[in-house]
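Researcher: I've got a protein sequence and the SMILES for E8B. Could you write out the 3D structure of the bound complex as structure tokens? I'd like something to compare against our soaking experiments later this week.
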Amino acid sequence: ILGGSSAGPHQRPYMASLQVDGQHVCGGLLIAEQWVLSAAHCMEDMKGKAFQVLLGAHSLSQPEPHKRLYAVRAAVRHPGSNTETNDDDLLLLQVSEKATLSEHVKILPFQRQDVDVPPGTLCEAAGWGFTSHSGRKPDVLQQVERPVKSREECNKRPYHDNTITDKMLCTDSRKKDTCKGDSGGPLICNGVAEGVVTAGARVCGNFKKPGIYTRIAAYVDWIDGVMAAAGE
Ligand SMILES: CC(C)CC(=O)Nc1cccc(-c2cccc(CN)c2)c1
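Model: Sure. Here is the predicted complex with E8B in place.
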């Protein structure tokens, strides 16, 4: 997160950190007791290694009573996701057992009505991604408020030039923005998860490349279907 601030401890108890060899790779959000929603691109960094899901964390390094690392029982990428585009950039992770919910670990409701968030709406992104262009990594969860940019505007040059589909949304990226390591985290508008961070143009804080998010409401049937089909 560029240009943001530290979240209050456990102020965002739905936040997940996807980790490989104990290192934060991507964000995620807890959408059911045993399921975390993230971004398909995050799997690219895994290089086939096993990864784990950290819940209940504020600091990545400090011991905290409610922090718990879960193994991943199943990782389901959206069938439309690929390395070339930001399309269908969603990943569902079934953790090894139902998360113990508490004041520090909570499910975040997501938008089920497939209606665009009005341009100008102030939303919040959160994550443990880079806080500077030089790649500084934060220890505690960061957050930033960003206004939604209309798809019409976002699809113009010099912005994203007609690559933003109706299953994506944009936020202004001038100075304050998501960045590497924030992929997979939530965009929250009025207390409801509306988007999942995608890497987009893989640049940060440049007004010419607004932040791109996958619109969760456009994938409700897929999300419900995967969770329903999976066993225990
Ligand atoms: C396999 C992937 C994890 C690699 C990756 O994501 N790289 C990368 C590099 C630079 C910026 C970003 C990035 C992320 C989230 C939001 C944004 C843009 N606001 C950029 C992402």
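Model: The pocket of E8B is lined by residues 26, 41-42, 44-45, 173, 177-180, 182-183, 197, 199-200, 202, 204, 211 (CB under 6 Å). The longest strand covers residues 23-32.
Researcher: Great, I'll pass this along to the crystallography team.
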